[in-house]
Structures are given as C-alpha cells and as structure tokens.
Amino acid sequence: MPDSSLVNLARQRPDPALCPTDQDTIPPRRQQKKKIDKQSLDYVLRTGLAGGLAGCAAKTVVGPLDRVKILFQASNPQFAKYTGSWFGVVRAMKDIYRQDGTWGLFRGHSATLLRIFPYAAIKFLAYEQVRAVIITSREQETPWRRLLSGSLAGVTSVFFTYPLEVIRVRLAFETKQSSRSSLSSICRQIYREHPTVPPSSPDTKLPVTPPRSGLVNFYRGFSPTIWGMLPYAGMSFLTHDTAGDWLRHPSISKYTTLPDDPSLSVPSDKPPQLKYWAELMAGGFAGLVSQTASYPLEVIRRRMQVGGAVGDGHRLRMAETMKLVWREKGLRGFFVGLGIGYFKVVPMVATSFFVYERSKSKLGI
C-alpha cells in the first residue's frame, strides 16, 4: 500500500507539458498602465520627436499644393492668371512641372522641413504641457480650456521658428529659372534688404515705418501670424479633441476604436486609440474648421512676408496690407486660394494628428 504522503504529493504536482512549446501558448501578461510624468525629460523628448515626425510627414504629403498656394496668395505675376478655379491649380502645377520638373513642385521644401520639425515638435509639446497645467481633471475638459491650450501652443511654436517660415516663403515665391537663389543667398538677401520709404501724400494717415535692415527682416508679417495662429491652432486642437470625444462615444466606440494592445505600455489617462479612418476623419475636420477661421490673416501674412520681393520694396504694415488687399480685390481678396487651402490643409492636418497619435503609442506616451 503506497504511503499517503506520496499520494498527496503526486496530486499536488502539475501535469507535465504535452510538448516543450506548450508554455509558449500562455497569453502574455498585460502590462499595467502607468502614470506619466509630463515634466520629465524623457516625456519631453518623446513628445517632441512624435510631434516633429508628424509635422514632416504632413508637410511632405502636401508639398506641391503648398507651393502653388503661396504663389496664389502672394499674387505672383506669372501665376495670377491661374487663380480662381480648381483647373487653375492643376494648370499651375503642370506649368511648374514643365519648367522645373518634380523638384520644382517641392521648391523650398528643404526649408519647410528645417522649419516644420522644430515647429511641430514645440507645438505638440507645448500643447501637452499647457494641458497638464490648466486641465488637471476630466471635469476641466471644457472647450475654452482646450481652445486656450491650443492657442498658446501655436503662439509658442511660431515665436521660435518664424524666421525659417519667412525663408521658406521667399524660396517658394521664386519662379524665374535665371534668378534661383540658394538657402544661404536668400538669408543674406533678406538680412541686407533696406526698404525704401514711399513718398508721403496729403491722403496718407498712417505713419510710415522707418527703413530698417537686419534681423528684423526675418519677422515680416509676424503680427498677423500671431493673430492668425490664435484661432488656427486653438480651433485645430479644440476640434480634433472634440471630434475624438464624439467618435469615442460608447454607442459607436466598438466601431471607431481599437482594442487594447497588451504588448504596449500606455498611460493610465490616455483614451482608447481611434482606428485609422476615424483618426484621419477627426484630423481632417479639425483642419477644415481651423483653416476657415484663420485664412484672411494668413493672406495678409503672406503679402507682408514677400514685401521685399515685389513692388517698391517698402515694408508693409498690417493695416496697410489689409487696405491693399481690399483695394485690389475687395472681400474676395482675403479668401484667394481658400479652395486649394482646404484641399491642402485637410489632408495635412489629418496626417499630422494621425502620425502624432500613432507615434505616441509606439513611444509609450
């Protein structure tokens, strides 16, 4: 008769694996969600990287359209005949391609990427940091707080990267093959520009800006840029986050959100990730709303930025530029190129938010 202790030991021993790989079939243990310190250097670097990659991807997608839009907004004489219709956009792109090939469609794109990586990195990082300060709980997720967070993020990013934007616009504005300028020569040209003072007249009521040269030339159009960035960035983030809330509503979330990935370690306060089409839809809607809210100021900014390359070369002030646009084309002049603006901004913002959200998940933030 076997010893009772041996029998009990045999009962407690687990059944042996049927084959050496049986243990591999055990599902992986789900990683616990962690609380992220948004002030840590690791979070700052990861967020900046995700934002920079998102900006570069978005700008590359719409590079040719961006070139044509700048030519339309700044009233380039060679392309003025193409404005006002969708066929004009296509014909303008064909004209550029015929003259300069594929690289002509991406004229100024190197300066774009040089500017957009720090710009997008700072914008998304600033948004996350401002949100962490003024939105500390779910109850504080109000439209006004989201609008303020986005506006402050946009202003912060513009302040640090605006000179690169001026260089990019000047490169994209050039169309004559004989007068192609390098990045370094464009910088020297902008720095050395000494604007002339137009002759005064009895009808002149605005004070004339005294002629200056130097670093101040790299901030042409800065005032309308700041005013335009307030509604653009604010409405962009507000609309994206609000649309994301709608798409995550419990009644449709099973169709619009992805299941939790057990292999990823995600923050405890991060909402469920949207499916690719839902994320693109939220970003595209954000681009549509933000572009409409800020476009007139964008037209004014472009005209001021190329002030040293057209006309008599004197520096235009914001009020003077508004009067000039109104005198030339009336109210319609403030919306020249809005159609191509929609065609460009919707996929650009959609791509930007999509790449940013996916990069955050891959980077564990």
Give a structural overview.
With 365 residues, this protein is mainly alpha-helical. 61% of the residues lie in helices and 0% in strands. It contains 13 helices and no strands. The longest helix is centred in the middle third of the chain and has 31 residues, at 143-173. The radius of gyration is 27 Å and the shape is globular. The model is unreliable at 17-30 (pLDDT under 50).
Report mean pLDDT, rounded to a whole number.
79
**Share of helical residues:** 55-70%
Structural class: mainly alpha
Task: Give the percentage of residues in beta strands.
Answer: under 5%
> What's the tally of helices?
13
Topology as H/E string?
A: HHHHHHHHHHHHH
Distance between the termini: 63 Å
Give the number of DSSP strands: 0
Low-confidence stretches: 17-30
Describe the biggest sheet?
none
Give a topology summary:
Layout: H1 4-12, H2 41-61, H3 63-73, H4 86-100, H5 102-105, H6 109-134, H7 143-173, H8 183-192, H9 222-247, H10 253-256, H11 276-305, H12 318-329, H13 338-362
Helix pairs in contact: 2-6, 2-13, 3-13, 6-7, 7-9, 9-11, 11-12, 11-13
